[in-house]
Every structure is written in C-alpha cells, then in structure tokens.
Amino acid sequence: MGLFNMKTAISLVLFILILNSCRGSRPEPEIYLIPTSYRGKVNVIFNQAKGQEIMYEGDKRVYRIPENGILLTKAKPEYGFIRHEYHFVDSSGKRTLIKILFDNHENTEEIGIYRDGTVGIYGNSDDIQNLKYQEFYVTDKKSLDKYFSIQYDTNFLKAVQQLTGIDF
Asked: What residue stretches are annotated with the DUF6843 domain (predicted)?
C-alpha cells in the first residue's frame, strides 16, 4: 500500500470515528395515545413525581393522554429529532393513526396533529419548580384558532396549575 493510500485509509477511519462520536445518543421514538373524542391542546408535562410511569412498546416511549389533554409523566424530556406517532384510541383499545398536519393544510375538516414538536416551560426557566412540557393540538384546521383564544388558554393553564399544584 502506497503512502497516499495509507494516509487516505487513516483519514477515512478517523473521519468515521469522529462522525460517529458526534452523533450522540438518539432520542427515543414516541407514541401518543389520545382518546378518540379529544379535541384541543395537549400538554405532556415532564419530571412529575406523581406522574404516569414511563411505558414502552418495543423501543418507543408511550404516552397515554387523559381525557383532559394534560399528561403528567415521570419521564424526562427528550430533545432532538424525535419520531412521533399519534393515535386515537377508542374505548375498546382500537387505534387509528392521526396524521401530522401543517397550518397550510388544504383540507380544513381533516382532524390531525398541529404544531407537532412544540416544547416550552411553565414558570421561570431559572426556577427549580419550572415545568418542562411538550405541546401539540388535536383538531381540524378550521377550528385551530379557537385553541389560541385567551379564554381557552386561561382555562387550560388553570387546569395545569390545579393538576401540578404549582402556580406560575
């Protein structure tokens, strides 16, 4: 093997090692199970001592969203590019896949998931009692705006405060 080929081989091995070390750990894929009749904002609030235990199906985290749309979970939040699956679940446990939709979706009556992947913090980010959450909306496009009204948001925040026992 010539000197050039040896340098190329060593450079390639080093490049692969560096690339692999930059990858880091990948976030776990997630499944969200939502009651069939639910429409509105959904919050998954992380790091809650009295929250839902972490559940898995294979390598995927599973979040069972309650009827009020606010899930408290013991899980820590994951960050990065996360594969999300959303399903409606009826009373017999049957699942129906829900599409992730965008604000420019043309069918205004199709129910889907809007604002997938939105994350935030209730309270001051420096506060030890802040609440990290993930948020999305289950609705059709024509109804999306009503979930951004002051009245809806105020009522939703009151429900979060009541469930967590934390004022913010």
From this structure: 28-143
- Name the token pair of 76: 């820590």
pTM of the predicted model as reported, rounded to 2 decimal places: 0.82
DSSP classification of residue 52? B
Alpha helices, H only, the chain = 3-23, 150-164
Q: The tokens of 55 are what?
A: 């559940």
- Smallest CA-to-CA distance from 128 within 45, 72, 13, 47 is with 47
Distance of CA 71 to the CA centre of its chain: 11
Summarised one tens digit per residue, pLDDT across range 68-105 is: 999 999 999 998 889 999 999 999 999 999 999 998 88
> Exposed/middle/buried for 42, CB within 10 Å: 0-12, 13-18, 19+?
buried
Is the per-residue pLDDT at 18 higher than 60?
Answer: no
